[in-house]
Amino acid sequence: MHKDHTITIDPVSRIEGHLKVEVTVDGGTVKEARCSGQLFRGFEIILLERDPRDAPLLVQRVCGVCPVVHAAASALSVDAAFGIADQIPDNGRVMRNLLLASEYLQSHILHFYHLAALDFVDVAAAADYEGPDSALNSLRDFIARQELAPFTPRYEGDYRLSKKDNQERASHYVRALEARRVAHEMLAVFGGKIPHQVGVVAGGCAEVPTADKIAAFLSKLGVLRHFIEEIYVPDVVAIAKAYDDYFEVGPGPRRWLSYGAFDLETAETDLLKRKRFIPSGRVSQDLKLRPVDAGRIAEQVGHSWYDDATSGVPVAAAKTVPAPDKENGYSWLKAPRYDGQAYEVGPLARTLVAYAAGDAAVRSQVDGLLGLFKASPAALFSVLGRHAARALEAKRLVKEMAEWVTSLRPGEPACEWRNPPQSGSGVGLTEGARGALGHWCEINDHKLSGYQLVVPTTWNASPQDDQGQPGPMEQALVGTKIKDMDNPFEVVRVVRSFDPCLACSVHLLTAKGQERTRCRVL
Amino acid sequence: MPGAVSAAVVMGVGNLLRQDEGVGVHAIRALADAGCGSAVELVDGGTAVFDALSSWSEIGRLVVIDALRGAGEPGAILRLSPQETEDRTEIALSLHQQGLLDSLAMLRHSGVRIGEVVIYGVEPAQMGWGTELSEPVARCLPQLVAQVEDELDISPTEEKQR
Amino acid sequence: MAENPKVTEHPVIWYQASACSGCVVAVLNGAAPTVQDLIVDQLVPGHHVSLRFQPTVMAGQGDLALEILAASEKATDGYILVVDGAIPTAAKGRFGLAGKIGGETTMREQVLALAKNASAVIATGTCAAYGGIHAAAPNPTGCVGIAALLKEAGINKPVVNIPGCPPHPDWFTGTVAHALLFGLPGPEQIDYAGRPKRFFGRLLHDLCPRRGFFEAHRFAKDMGDPECMYELGCKGPWTHADCPERQFNNGTNWCVQAGAPCHGCVEPFFPDVCCPIYVKIGLAALPQIRRDQASGEMVAVARPRPAEEN
Description:
The complex is a heterotrimer of chains A (522), B (162) and C (310).
Chain A: E1 2-3, E2 6-9, E3 19-26, E4 29-37, H1 55-58, H2 67-82, H3 90-116, H4 134-144, H5 163-191, E5 200-201, E6 204-205, H6 211-242, E7 255-258, E8 261-263, E9 276-278, E10 281-284, E11 297-300, E12 313-314, E13 335-338, H7 347-356, H8 360-373, H9 383-405, E14 423-432, E15 435-444, E16 447-454, H10 456-460, H11 472-477, H12 489-497, H13 502-505
Chain B: E1 4-13, H1 23-33, E2 41-46, H2 49-53, E3 56-69, E4 77-80, H3 82-87, E5 92-93, H4 100-109, E6 113-122, H5 135-151
Parallel strand pairs in B: 1-2, 1-3, 3-6
Antiparallel strand pairs in B: 3-5, 4-6
Chain C: E1 8-16, H1 22-28, H2 35-39, E2 47-53, H3 62-72, E3 80-84, E4 97-100, E5 103-106, H4 107-116, E6 120-124, H5 126-130, H6 146-153, E7 159-162, H7 169-182, H8 197-200, H9 204-207, H10 211-215, H11 243-246, E8 288-291, E9 298-301
Parallel strand pairs in C: 1-2, 1-3, 3-6, 6-7
Antiparallel strand pairs in C: 4-5, 8-9
């Protein structure tokens, strides 16, 4: 576990994918941190020479927790390359929004309860429960059998909730299993199935809306609204109260970026200028809104296992050349930088950008939260700020989705289905549950001739760049005080607050072309 | 939008999933393997004749290969004109969705110039679900290739296409 | 296995290799049985699945988790190894790194050590079964499915494949229930691709509600048309799965019902032969569909590919 003053956590569990974290601790404080993506899944011929319409379906396999956002970003880039970005029928636009929003809800609930909560909640408190709660009775019987996997082994020594509060949260952990399942059922109404839905396609959505499907969606949405408002948000507040020192832990680079998401129109083909429910922008701790220019994004590979010659190239022209034995590399993640700076992405970023943009609903929520804790905005730049932002975003979305679904028009088209053009290029920028996602595609001879992705966790969990500047998660770990080197709760609480998705962050897939027998090494 | 111009097009039609009903498409493959693709356009028409040909603006001669009931014993090959498929009630092409004559008329109406049309029909034995040709129909393919080559004055090349 | 008079514990190690976690999320989506039934309660009375290791949900991390794997390699309790994801083997396995106590190893080494001591292996998802999307050619990470890896390493263990991208949760929990009630499905219950016939024994095309359109030669031309989607690339004729009956996400919907052609995600040849998704398979790549002599069922089998040019 630790040698001298180094703590190595490999694997980090309760995230998506394979992550190794190494922190160097001196005098009880983290002085240096290294986050390492442990898996590389292929080379960047992901979709080369393939029918561009295959892209939205296949790229979902980058991640089974957030496949819809990959389909969505892919569809946006292919739509642009086809020249139909402003011709997506309204039904298609709205269903895409509903599918993506459903994924947010599932992902946020999964994250708080099934990935993060066990760092704060002691489910063993259910051992002597007596009462009518069936979830707690199940847990009690489970504990009585004394085979406690997967809830033990675990870190010990810092569970702060009272027994009753632990029991209540443990019950909610079990109930949240059903809530996130219902969120996926809701998604399947228009997505066909999930994970890896089939609704989002180039040109719109394959499914067609009907009144009964709208009603089914609303029914499940009601279940989720109740869960989010009555259980999820209050649980986040309860945990924040018991662990309020975490409002000062893990601030990160204090620079946030959002591409915006949930198209409210299609006329504007520049996605960063398009009217969207969640706005695009950049902020730092001054909370002043700045614009995003996708041309200023480049991935550096100074400390990543890729050829140095490919470092720092703007994404549209970038190449991927793996170098698994490169000596000063320590991660399969590249280091995306905006104007050479590390930026955090995710629900906190979206919330702060929307706050700076003057969104009334966001301001009301955030000010309310800060008022409750009598805290200044700096409290948001923290572990708890991220958890709170996630929950409050879910609450805003679940209300908005009811408006969206009732705006669907049965009988009107949902998809502008086209054959691939001779040539074209496009970029799809949107926000997934975990943050800013971009897909870039290029078409030649009716087939894909280029494809690149820059995904949220690559921003967040990136290693040091060419200048040695650490990534956001690494920065968030530095300065963290560790009470007990054998039970470094603090480290994993910081890491999990980012909701890392490592499958996304090393996103590279291979795919076989129909007749190709040659491997194109980039 | 300019379309393709070809002196000769050979189109196989039928459903590959219905055993012998797909013989037209299998024949196209056999013609390709015999090297005919360098001399004439070979087209997999599937079950959608109009779509398969709509990207042409002019076809000098069109040869259509399809399963055809009334040709004789399984594997028998019959050469006939589109008009004969309408006139002779004892024969029936595999395409039910839209008669070949209708498809040709629609294509011509939409501006595609098509010269002489010849049909090669193969009597099927089995048209159930499956991808495999029945034995008698599979056995007739080399003769069918030879007849089409003869029809279009193609000298078979040594090189086989994949 | 730890026993008390009432409940038998069945230890499971769930190992994730080169994966997207879709197979894990799929299991979480089970409606009957639920994941609570599977992990907390007794899936079958008197039997509890003890999930010793599963990276997405387990409380422990780092060495706490690695100690479980290390102990398993010596355990005598006959645990079942569940694998999701394909296993990268190129570059000495360095494309898939993994922690081990005091150092680092590769996923390949780790999964082989776990398989050696397991009583059986369940490959969940097309990647673990056949390589799937992570093994699509030219496959520079050398990804393989677990059965192929074990065969190459000379490890002889029963392997049950539950493909799908991801599988329906019932295919997985149904197989676990079978194991608890009757033992793992035996050779007569498993098809030529290692799949339980209960779920994968019939062709989707035989169960499809749009089959009538196919028989009547009526084909969809455009997205949103209600007819058979063969001309829009549906791979249902080649796909062995009961999706039309079972449907996904608690009976909410499934691909064809949602207006999308089947993309054959349970097949060994997914995604290679199934792409382009929206174009029907041409004769060159067409897998055979024929009636199997022995079983009388329609089966679809990929043809051996002709020798490739170099």
